[in-house]
What we know:
It is a single chain. The protein has a single domain (2-158), classed as Beta Barrel (Porin). The protein has one helix and nine strands. Strand 7 (111-127) and strand 8 form a beta hairpin. Strands 1-2-3-4-6-7-8-9 form an eight-stranded antiparallel β-barrel. By secondary structure, it is mainly beta.
Amino acid sequence: MKKIVTVLIAVAALFGAMGTQKAKAAGGDMAVGLNGGFATYNDGGYMSLYYQYEFATHFRLAPEIGYVFRNDGCSAFTMNVDMQFPFRLHRVVAVYPLVGLTFNNWMWHDGNAARVGGNFGAGIDFYLTNYLKLNIQGKYSVMNDTSGGFFGVGIGYEF
């Protein structure tokens, strides 16, 4: 996993150095994409589908639906609605803190636990082209009995 993340960061840095992205207009941008990585609660992998809508220069809404793959007899269905606050460091790089709400339904062989909680974390976007971006994100979901972190890498299409 570390090698994959290192390669993706190197590719993003190469594209960033070439300056492939035009300056973005303020607000009105949308993106859809896939995100995948590591979930700490069950030490397993996860995959999610996300949508982002940027209402203003430094505010976007990012709903996400995902699945945490079974590990140690435990898997989960997740839904999140996060608010992200992106700040451009360069025309091809943006960082963002995030806060939001989460619903997780953790499933074991002998039952399940549906929990509502809050998210907080941060991420970084690398704009590879006018339409394609790579993101690295980490967030922690605070819930009763099932809190855990989600650390992943994603790719998205902007339109």
